[in-house]
Write a structure and sequence with these properties.
This protein is α/β, with parallel strands linked by helices and about 290 residues long. It has nine helices and 14 strands. It has helices spanning about 15-35, 60-65, 110-120, 135-145, 185-195, 210-225, 240-245, 255-260, 265-280; strands at about 1-5, 5, 45, 70-75, 80-85, 100-105, 125-130, 150-155, 160-165, 175, 200-205, 225-230, 250, 290. The strands form three sheets. The chain has an eight-stranded parallel sheet, with helices on both faces. Strands 6-5-9-10 form a four-stranded mixed sheet. Helix 5 packs parallel to helix 6. The chain is globular, with a radius of gyration of 19 Å.
Length: about 290
């Protein structure tokens, strides 16, 4: 039931292998970008279907392994405590059920990305805001066990983010995300964090914190020549400014439908790329399909 950070980011109680495939499918383009850093590095769009990456699992550590030192990766994003109740069925309105078991784990899409990048051999820094409660202390201790830099994990009064989750026997779930202190991270803090890292090679973001905060971090990252990777999850419309500073846009199928309004066929990907290029009207933010060799 647990991923590397606790409950799987799918939050359905699925096994650890699927969680690793999910996180690694988001991070796989890093290896291509890192290897191609001297090229033009045009932005790419690629829906990260889990099965399409299975054949490349064995290449991750090889592709990510540098000749001299590990790449510095920063994650500007979320951390959460997953509070998971397993039941024999989902309760109806006003109904109380006796559950089967309970699990608590470290989650959040940002935290999962940070841990997976660290497990792939990167030097990782987390940029986030935690509450001043016990969950915040637990999160810092968990990051420390993985050797993740928490210099820029800020603290704010109140509770940190939690996600109460109800999981039925068929693995369907009901999730309520309570952002808490995660949304207290400011654009200024994100920008200063990335600026102070200096030699950061890749900055990763998601949509569990305000888009303006991620935009601020990405803008500084692009200014120092770093690659920025946006995983638009949970699915939501993207601000034009955030899209303009995202080197890579990596939606899954559901997220692509949210962004483009159509299923992710080859033709739809090409049309979406052309449309976004025209709308942004900037050659360095043109979005094209990822090369088949990547």
């Amino acid at each position: 039931d647990s991923s590397t950070t606790g409950i799987t980011d799918w939050r359905t109680g699925r096994d650890q292998y699927r969680a690793v495939r999910f996180c690694a499918s988001m991070l796989l383009p890093i290896s291509w970008s890192w290897a191609s850093r001297g090229s033009r590095g045009e932005p790419k769009v690629h829906p990260h279907g889990v099965d399409s990456f299975q054949a490349q699992l064995e290449t991750w550590s090889v592709a990510m392994m540098p000749s001299t030192q590990a790449p510095r990766i920063a994650v500007v994003g979320s951390t959460m405590i997953d509070l998971v109740a397993y039941t024999n069925r989902v309760p109806g309105p006003g109904e109380t059920l006796v559950g089967e078991r309970f699990a608590m784990g470290f989650g959040g899409k940002g935290a999962n990305q940070a841990v997976m990048a660290r497990l792939l051999g990167a030097d990782v820094a987390m940029v986030n805001c935690l509450g001043d409660d016990a969950y915040g202390e637990m999160t810092l201790e968990n990051f420390a066990t993985y050797g993740i830099d928490t210099t820029h994990v800020y603290r704010a009064p109140g509770a940190r983010a939690v996600a109460p989750i109800c999981v039925a026997p068929d693995r369907t779930n009901r999730i309520i995300i309570l952002p808490g202190a995660t949304h207290a991270l400011t654009a200024g803090q994100a920008a200063e964090a990335i600026r102070s890292l200096g030699d950061v090679a890749v900055v990763i973001g998601q949509l569990e914190i305000p888009q303006s905060v991620t935009t601020a971090g990405f803008s500084v990252a692009r200014g120092v020549g770093a690659i920025t990777i946006m995983n638009p999850a949970p699915a939501a419309p993207l601000d034009a400014e955030l899209l303009s500073v995202s080197t890579w846009l990596i939606p899954n199928e559901v997220e692509f439908v949210m962004l483009a309004g159509v299923p992710p066929t080859d033709d739809a990907l090409a049309a979406f790329a052309d449309r976004k290029s025209t709308r942004l009207n900037s050659s360095h933010t043109d979005i094209s399909r990822m090369p088949s060799s990547a």
